[in-house]
């Protein structure tokens, strides 16, 4: 049973299994265990970023191609839902239209970029996606009639997902309102998407992707058209990222370039996948949880260090709360050198 | 070997093609000079990157860090020499810019040496890791810049002698752009002469074509590569300093922003080719300025469109390097 749900890709390490169960259960009971708007927000963000990082891992870890346009697809999904909710009013039909439109646009764009640049070399793909994504981010902030420009869009969610909607009194002291419903929508959808991705990477198709990663020339020689497989992989990744974006838009009721399209988000995803462990879906899960936590709580830790070092001129700046990315960047470089398989690879090795 | 003139003809073709669209010859001249200036600045920054790729198959995503460092160092020196910058004498102005640019190149070059040693050397021959590690280097460098210079942007004004424009009838040409064109052409000439007329250049070109053969003949290609990497970093610093003066503001994000243009240019030119990089940079600079004037809304997409068109015509870039 468990084997078939996980598509025969078991954690293969006691500690990893423990961590995954802790994440699964922890997120499931998060609204009751840690009540409060901020912690619920962190939990929902973790869910969304797990999906986003896992879909990026399909490209980076399984197929061995580096794309810097992943946030673009994430943003397309988020803006699809945001724009349709703004234009068509707060109904489920708007959500459906926005999601499908975002999905289609993401797939079409991924196909075009893939056919253009995956033919030649993967290094081309990295550079071209970087250029396209930065142009797209600027475009989104320029088309202010449609996207609300730099400020983004604020919109109303469907009635059932608002805080004012209530379906019963309280359970364990937590009010049963639309936000709770919204959280479990995000949670369930994320879980389903992760299981689908697990299914994909453990299918024959996934094996071909890994073969391409290991040796594209040999894969081609065996008779697999690498361009086609790479393009399909980047389409699946783009579609999943768009769905993650749609979930984020459904959660936060506001969408702006900073939270969906900026290069900072791209860097975050890269850190998640590499630190967690490339080439395993579980690595993306662990990495996403760690990074979202670090974002929200490492700053507090740095603030303490900053206070302690307030007299020393340069050192105090080094531990400024806003410099958390510096430390994660250093961790990232060390990770690529010394633990190329990331946390998950390390845990599996020990067994 | 027969020379391939076709890509070179694109530049005058683009210029002439834009003339009827723009209409007024005066604004056409202004835009063309602006485009050439922008293109040559990008060329200065991109040349080192394309050479390191050609020579050692290393693509440095952290190249933007050198650009940003150059801009910051130059800005600091110029702010320290503020009285000379505002003086009403071109010589005093140049006496302030000279050391600033020199400092930018030296610091970027030294940083390049360290970057090559610490970040790039352990991952030779592994593309995926190269992209990841150099991106990590860019993140760390950008954050360190904020640690040292603070998170706010620095405002930088051009020295007195380089403000304003030369006027010929109703044609206005900004003085700073003329300087940028001159410096860019000097750098290009120096690079072209070194590559085509000296023994060192011969070795570098041979290394791009077939590195193993050069090694087999007894030359240490590794040392050559470190040299090229350092020079490329120093040039990026020079370009960054010039770009900072051109924009008149310096932020830590400048590296990542310009790096996007630099990547587009070296893809258009063909990875590893300095000549292609030159043509690509001019095309990008001119297109950006013409389109920016004709249809500001789509100006952002114009570079991507240009890249797509070039790749449709020549999938490996304008001047593909034979080896790959």
From TrEMBL, chain A:
Transmembrane segment boundaries: 15-34, 46-74, 94-116, 123-143, 184-206, 227-249, 269-294, 301-319, 325-345
Alphabetized UniProt keyword annotations: Cell membrane, Membrane, Transmembrane, Transmembrane helix
Topology class, membrane: Multi-pass membrane protein
Broad class of where this protein is predominantly found: membrane
InterPro entries: ABC_transp_permease (IPR001851), LivM-like (IPR043428)
CDD domains, per database record: TM_PBP1_LivM_like
Subcellular location, record wording: Cell membrane
Keyword Ion transport: no
Endpoints of the signal sequence: none
PANTHER family for this protein: ABC TRANSPORTER ATP-BINDING PROTEIN, HIGH-AFFINITY BRANCHED-CHAIN AMINO ACID TRANSPORT SYSTEM PERMEASE
Protein name stated in the entry: Branched-chain amino acid ABC transporter permease
TrEMBL record, chain B:
Pfam families: BPD_transp_2
Protein localization: Cell membrane
KW Cell membrane (keyword) present: yes
Membrane topology: Multi-pass membrane protein
Keywords assigned: Amino-acid transport, Cell membrane, Membrane, Transmembrane, Transmembrane helix, Transport
Top-level taxon of origin: Bacteria
Family: Belongs to the binding-protein-dependent transport system permease family. LivHM subfamily.
Name of the protein described by the UniProt record: Branched-chain amino acid ABC transporter permease
Parts of the chain that traverse the membrane: 33-53, 65-84, 90-115, 176-195, 224-246, 258-284, 290-313
């Amino acid at each position: 049973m468990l084997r078939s749900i996980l598509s025969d890709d078991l954690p293969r390490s006691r500690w990893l299994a423990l961590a995954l169960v802790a994440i699964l259960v922890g997120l499931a009971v998060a609204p009751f265990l840690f009540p409060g708007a901020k912690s619920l927000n962190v939990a929902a963000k973790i869910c969304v970023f797990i999906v986003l990082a896992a879909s990026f891992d399909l490209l980076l870890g399984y197929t061995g191609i580096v794309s810097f346009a992943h946030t673009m697809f994430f943003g397309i999904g988020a803006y699809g839902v945001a724009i349709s909710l703004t234009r068509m009013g707060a109904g489920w039909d708007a959500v459906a239209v926005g999601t499908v439109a975002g999905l289609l646009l993401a797939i079409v764009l991924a196909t075009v970029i893939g056919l253009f640049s995956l033919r030649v070399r993967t290094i081309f793909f990295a550079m071209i996606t970087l250029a396209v994504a930065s142009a797209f981010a600027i475009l989104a902030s320029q088309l202010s009639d449609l996207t609300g420009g730099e400020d983004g869009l604020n919109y109303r969610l469907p009635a059932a997902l608002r805080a004012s909607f209530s379906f019963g009194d309280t359970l364990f002291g937590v009010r049963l309102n639309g936000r709770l419903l919204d959280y479990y929508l995000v949670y369930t959808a994320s879980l389903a998407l992760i299981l689908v991705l697990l299914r994909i990477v453990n299918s024959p198709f996934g094996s071909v992707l890994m073969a391409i990663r290991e040796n594209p020339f040999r894969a081609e020689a065996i008779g697999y058209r690498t361009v086609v497989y790479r393009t399909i992989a980047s389409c699946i990744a783009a579609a999943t990222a768009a769905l993650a974006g749609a979930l984020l838009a459904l959660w936060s009721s506001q969408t702006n370039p900073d939270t969906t399209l900026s290069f900072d988000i791209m860097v975050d995803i890269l850190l998640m996948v590499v630190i967690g462990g490339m080439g395993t879906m579980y690595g993306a899960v662990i990495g996403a949880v760690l990074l979202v936590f670090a974002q929200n709580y490492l700053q507090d830790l740095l603030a303490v260090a900053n206070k302690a070092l307030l007299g020393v001129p340069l050192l105090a700046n080094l531990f400024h709360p806003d410099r958390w990315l510096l430390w994660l960047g250093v961790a990232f470089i060390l990770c690529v050198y010394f633990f190329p398989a990331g946390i998950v690879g390390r845990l599996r090795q020990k067994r | 070997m027969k020379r391939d003139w076709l890509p070179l003809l694109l530049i005058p073709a683009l210029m002439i093609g834009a003339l009827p669209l723009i209409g007024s010859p005066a604004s056409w001249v202004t835009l063309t000079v602006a485009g050439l200036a922008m293109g040559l600045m990008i060329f200065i920054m991109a040349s080192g990157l394309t050479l390191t790729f050609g020579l050692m198959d290393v693509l440095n995503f952290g190249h933007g860090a050198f650009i940003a460092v150059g801009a910051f160092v130059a800005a600091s020196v110029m702010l320290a020499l503020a009285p000379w910058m505002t003086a009403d004498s071109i010589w005093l102005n140049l006496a302030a810019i000279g050391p600033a640019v020199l400092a930018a190149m030296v610091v970027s070059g030294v940083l390049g040496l360290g970057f090559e040693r610490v970040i790039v050397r352990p991952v030779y021959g592994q593309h995926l890791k190269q992209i990841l590690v150099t991106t990590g280097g860019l993140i760390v460098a950008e954050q360190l810049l904020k640690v040292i210079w603070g998170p706010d942007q620095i405002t930088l004004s051009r020295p007195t002698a380089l403000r304003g424009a030369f006027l010929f009838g109703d044609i206005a040409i900004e003085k700073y752009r003329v300087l940028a064109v001159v410096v860019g052409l000097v750098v290009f000439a120096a690079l072209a002469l070194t590559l085509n007329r000296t023994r060192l250049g011969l070795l570098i070109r041979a290394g791009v074509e077939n590195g193993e053969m050069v090694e087999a003949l007894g030359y240490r290609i590794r040392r050559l590569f470190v040299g090229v990497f350092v020079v490329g970093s120093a040039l990026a610093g020079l370009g960054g300093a010039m770009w900072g003066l051109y924009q008149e503001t310096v932020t830590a994000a400048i590296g990542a922003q310009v790096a996007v243009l630099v990547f587009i240019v070296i893809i258009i030119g063909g990875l590893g080719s300095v000549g292609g990089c030159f043509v690509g940079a001019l095309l990008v600079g001119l297109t950006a300025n013409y389109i920016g004037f004709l249809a500001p809304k789509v100006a952002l997409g114009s570079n991507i469109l240009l890249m797509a068109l070039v790749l449709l015509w020549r999938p490996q870039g304008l001047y593909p390097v034979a080896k790959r």
